[in-house]
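This protein record is not my work; I was only asked to verify it. Take the sequence as given and treat only the C-alpha cells as open to question. I have pasted the whole thing underneath without changing anything:
***
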Amino acid sequence: MSEQEETAEQQDPTPPQKSSWRHIRRVVSGLLVLLMVVIGGVAWYASTPEFANRVRQELISVLEKATGGRVELGAFHWKFWDLQFEADNLTIHGLEGPGEIPYAHADRIWVDVSIVSFLRPKISLDALTVTHPVVHLIVYADGTTNQPHPKVATKSDKPVMDTIFDLAVKRAEVTDGLFLLDEQAVEQRAVPFDVTADHLQVKVTFVPAPLDAKNAAAEERYDGEIAAEDVVAVRGKAAPVHSKVEVHASLKRNAVDVTSLRLETGKSVLTGTASLDDFANPQWKAKLQGNLDIRQVNAIADIPGLDQGQVSLDIGGQGTRSKFEVNGRAGVKDGGYHIATIHLAGVSADTKVHLDSDSIDLTDVHARLAVGGLVDAEMHIHNWLNPVPSNLVPNLPPATTRAIRKAEKLDADRSKQQTTIRAKIRGVSLRAVMGMVAPRHFEDLGFDTLVNGDAGVDWTGSPQAFTGNVKMSFAPSGRPMAGEVPLTGTIDAGYSNVTGVVSIRSLEGQTPGSHFTVSGNLGVYPITQDSSLHVQLTTNDLAEFDRTLTVLGVAARGEHGVKALPVALHGQASFDGTISQGILDPKVDGQLEASNFDLMLPAENTPAAGNGTPAPGQTIHVDAASGHATYSSDLIALENGSVQQGKTTVHLSGALHAHELSRNRREFDDDSVVSADVAMQNAAVPELLRLAGQDLPVTGTVNLQARVSGTLGNLNGGGHLSVAGGSVYGEPYRTLNTDLRFSGQEIDAEHLVFLLDGGKLTGDGGYNYHAKSFHVQAQGEGFDLAHIERLKNGKYPISGLVSFQAQGSGTVEHPNLQAALHLAKLNFAQATTGSMDLTAHTQGQQLLLTGNAHLNDAALQVNGQVQLAGDYQSKMQLNLTGLDVEPILTSLAVRGVEVHSTIAGAVTVSGPLKQPKQLSGDARFSQFQVALGGIPLKSDGDLHATLSAGVLHLDPLHITGEDTNTRASGSMGVFDKDRELDLHASGSVNMKLAQVLDKDLTSSGHVDFNVDAGGTLKRPGLTGQVKFTNVAVALEDFPNGLSQMNGTLAFDQDRLDVKNLTAVSGGGKITLGGFMTYQQGLYADLSATAKDVRIRYPQGVSSMADAKMRLQGTQASLLLSGTVTITRFVIGSDLDLTSLSSSNSSVSLPPDPDAPSNKLRLDVHIVSAPQLDFQNSLAKLAGDVDLRVRGTLAQPSVLGHITVTEGSATFAGTKYELQHGDIYFNNPLRIEPTIDLSATARVEDYDITVGLTGTSSKWTPTFRSEPPLSEQDIFSLLALGRTQEEQQIYSNMQASAGVNSTADTLLGGALNATVSSRIQKLFGGGSVKIDPTFVSGTGDSTARITVQQQVSKNATLTYATNVNSTAQQLIQAQWNLTENFSVLAVRDESGVFSLLFKVRRRYR
C-alpha cells in the first residue's frame, strides 16, 4: 500500500483550494476501491493452492520450532471470509526410534476464530475440533521419554490461563482419540480407547466480570455443564462400559471450582466436589463419596489380579502443594484378587484411611474371608513420598570410619520409606490358606485345622527388602469334612527377602497318629539356595497323609495317594535327621526306623487283567527295619541297615555314587560306583522265591554272606550261600552249599553240592546278565526212587537208582546242552522190574531226545526233536510193544480182574509246542481183551484216535462181552479254552461189572443207555437216557440193599431227571424222583418215599418204618431232610446192650472237613406211630418216639426224647412193672442218650423198686424195697428168690442133702430163660421156673417146676409140682383187692387148703 500511495502522490498534482473537498472525496473513493481490490486480490491469492502450500510449509516450520520434533502436515485449508482453518494428517515425531509410532498425530484439526478488535489485535476462539488424535508416550528405563524439546524457548511472560481466557473459547471437541503408553524394557502396553457419547449436552458459558468489579480479570469465568446420558467406553476387546456423567464446574483465571460431579457406571456411583485456588501456590479441597464395581473399572483400566468386588469410599481432604491431609473410610465387599498363585475371593473388609505428606495409615482394618476366618490388621507407610532407592544399602565412601558409616546409614534409613504391617489372624482354615497362596489343586491337603496368631511384614526403602514373621497355632475346628485329619501345632518363623531364607525357629505338628518337629533354615530364593533343616517325624498311620500325597501327585500302578506308596504301615515309623542343600536338589540324611510294615513290589512283565486292572505284585512283610540312610542326586547310602522278618535277619551296608557325566549332571547308570556288604541269616526259601516272582513248592533255610564293589556294570566280589532243611516239590533234601563269585557282569556259583537222601548232585555254573549267556555243568548219582515221597506206597513200593550228567552253555535263545539219565534196577511192588535210559542234546537250535524203557516183557521207545526257537516245532514218536496188563494188576493187588493181553501201539505227535492247538497226532493200539469180575470183554478192532486243530477224535469203538455191548465215538477239545465235547455212547452193560469198583459190593441186573455229550468240559450238555432193569445192589456192611430196581434216568442238557425209579428194600417199596443239574456245579433236588421198609439194625433190633425224604443242595452243601415214622419195633433176646454201650462211648477222630460225607447236612425228624408198642419173651412196652437227627453224615447228632408210657418185663423169673421211663438226647455234639427208668417187682413178700439213670456209657442203678432190705439182700432176693439169711439156711439144707447150691442156681437161671421163652412162644404168656434141687419141708431134695400165669390185672394163678412125686403139688390163687390188701387161696403139697388175708402196712 505504501508504494501505491507514493506513486499517487507523485502523479497527482496539488488541487486547487476550491475543490479540496472534492479532491478528498475522490481520494477516499480511490482508496476504498484500491482497498477492495487489494482485499479481493489477497482473498483470491489466499484461496490458491500455492498460498495454502506456503502456509502449510510455514506452519510446519513454526510447529517444529515450538515442539522440537519433526512435523508432517498432509494438507491445510482455510476459508478467508469465515476465518475457519483446517489441517489434515498432522504428525509430530518425537525422540522415538525409526519405524515406531510417532509422538503425536491427528487426522483433522478444525479452528473457527473471530476478530475481537482490529485496533488492539485480539481474537476469540469460537470452536476447536480435533478428530482421531493419537498420542504415543515412551518411558525409557532411565526415566526419560520420547517427548521432544522445543528448539526456541518461549519468551512470553503471560500465564497460560490468561491466554485461555483471552481466547474466550466458546466450544471445543475431541473425538476418536488413542493413547499409547510404552514402558521401555518392560512391555509395550497399548491402551486404545474409544469414547462415544449419545445425547451429549455440553454447555460452556463465558461469564464476563461485572461492570462494577474492582478486578475484572479475576471475576471472569467459564461456567460449564457437561451431561451425557450414555457414554460408552471400550478398551481393546473388553466389553463396553456404559456410563452416565454429570459435571458442573467453574474456571477462573486463578481458581477452579467443581461444584458437582456424578458418575454412574452400572452399579458404581461416585459423587464429589473439589476446588483449587491460586495456581501458583495451590490450595485444594476435595470430597469423594460412592462405590465402584471393580469389574467395570477393570474393563476400562486393566488392573492385573482384580476381578470382582464392590469398593466403597467416603474420603475428604485439603492442603497445599507441600502439606496436605486426607481422611475417611474405605471398604470392599466380595472382593476378588487372582494373580499367579494368589487367589482371594469373597473378601469383605473396611478400614480407616489417613494420608498426609509424611505417611499413609490404614488402621482398624477388619477383613472377613468368604471361606471363614477373620483378619484384623493395620498398615503404616512413613516417608511415602520419598523415592525408593535402587540399591538396598547406601553407597558410602570406603574411607568412612565405622561410626560415621553407621550414623550416615541411620540418617539414610530415616529418610527412606518405612512400611509396617501387623495382622492378627483368627479362625482361618488350612484349606483357606492353601486356597489363597497355592495352586487350585493344592487347596485340600486333608487336614482339619484352624490358624490363629500374629503376622507381620516390615521394610525400609524398597519393598524388595521386606521381612516377615509369623507366630501362630493350629487347632482342629471340631467340624471336620469327610476324610479330614485333625491337626494341632504351632509355628514360629520368619522370612527375609534380601537373603531369600525362611528361618523356622520352631514348627511342631500333631495328628492322632503322627508327630513332627522342624527347625532350621529353608532357602527359597533363589531356588538353588542351600537349606539346613532338622526334621523329626513319627507316625503309625500313613493314611493320614493320603489326601496330601494325592494332591502332590503321588501315583503308581493306577493308584493314588497312600495306595501308590510301595509300603503299608501297620506299626510305627520314625525319621530323625537333616535336610540340606537346595530345594531342587535336597540331601536327606538321618536315622530311619520302622516296624510291622509291608513292602509291595510291582509285578514285572505281567499283563494286566482283562478289565485293565494292573496285575498284582508281591507283598513282603517286615517285622522291623532300621538304618542310617542318605539320599541325594549323587549318593544313595545305607549304614548299619537291619531288616527283621520272623527268624530272618538281613544286615546291609553300602553306598551307590552317581556317575558324573558333566560338571552339573550326574546319573545312576552302569558306571555308578557301588560298594555293599550283605549278610542274610535264617531266610525262608519260599519268601525269597516269592520276591523273585516265582511260586514254587521249594522250602528251606538260606544263609548268605556277600561283598560287592566296583561299578554296576563291572562288579567284583564274592560270598557263600547255604540252604538247609527243606524240600523240593515235596521231596526233602539235606543241604545245598555253593560259593558265589562276582566278576564283571557275571555271577558264578562254584563248588555247588546238593545232598538228598541217598543222592548227591555236584556242579558249577554262571550267568552273564549283560550278554544273557550261561554255562552249567552238573552230575548226580545215588538217587533212589524209594526215597521219593511221591512214589512211596506201602502197598505198591517202587525202587530204582537214578544217575545223570548234564552240561551246557550259550544263551537261552541258542543253548548248547547235553544230558543223559539212567534208571536202573526199577522194581515195582516186587513183581515188575525194568530200566530206562534217556538222552538229550542240542544240535544247532534243535533239541534231540532218545529214550528206551523196559518193563518185564514190554518195551517202550521214545524219539523226538524240538526246535529251540520260534514256535518250538517238534516231532515225537512213542512205540509200545509186548505190554501185558496182568503183571501190572498183580503188582497192584487187583483181584477179580483177569487180563491176558499183548498190547502194542504207536503214538506220534508233531507241531509247534508254543501253539498247542496246531499240534497234530495219531494213536493206534491193537485189539485187547479184558476179563472184569469174571465177565470177558474185548474190543472189536483196534483203538484209534487222532489229534487235529486241538481236537482229539476217537474213531468208533465197539466193546462186547457177556450181557454187555457198548459203542462209543466222538471228539473232545484238549487245547482250546472251553474244551468242547461231541461224544456219543450207547449199548448195554451187565451190572456185575460194578463189583470191580468195590469188593464189598454185590450187584446184578441190566442197564441200557444211549447218551450224547455236547457243550464244554466245564459245562457239558448231556442228552439221552439210562434204563435200569431188575438191578440189585448191596454193600456187605450195610443192613439193607436195593433189589428189583427199575426205572429211567433222563439227561436233558444240564439236567438229569429221575423218572419212575422204584426199588425194594427190606420188604418195602422205595420210590425215587427229582432232578440234578451239573453244568455250573452239582445241584440236586431228589425226593424218596419208603413204605413198610424193615431194617434189622443193630443186632437184635428189628424195626419197620415209613419215610419221606428230600436231598437238596449243591455238592459243597447238601441237605437231607424229611420224616421217618417208625411203625413197628421189636427187640430180640440176643440184643447185646454192653456192645451198644461200648460203641457209643468210643472216642472217634473228627472227620475230614473236605470229605463228601462231611458236606451232607442232616435234618431228619424221627417219630413213632400212635400207640407204638414192642414186645418179646422178656418184656412188653408201649411209648412214643420224637427225635431230630442233625449234624452231618460224617458226624451226626440226635436231639429229642423217647417216652415209655407203660409196660412190664420178666428177668430171671421175676416180673417188673414199669413205673416211668424216659430217654433223652440232649448232646448236640455226639449221640449220647440219657436214661431215666423206674420199675417195681414183687418177690416173695417184698416190693422191690429198681431205678436206672445216667448215660449209656455210665449207668447208675438204684435199689430199694418194702419192707426195707439192704442192697445185698435185694440183690440176693432178685437173683436167688431169697434174702441172704434165707439163702444161707436153704444152702445149709442143700448141703445136708449133698447139693451144690451155686451150681444149681446158675443151672436154674439158664433153664428158666430158655424154657420161659419157648413157653411164651407156644402159649402166648406165663412164666416157668425150674428149681433143680428144691428141698421140701420133709427135707427131701427134688426138682421142682413152677408155672405162673397172670389171668387178669389183679389175679395171678400159680401151679408148682415136684418132678419126683406128682402128689406133692401146690396150687395158689392170689387176688389183689387193693394195693395193700390181697386174698390168697392155697392148696399146699400135703393137700391142705387154706385162705390167707395179706395186709401191707409200713411203719416209720
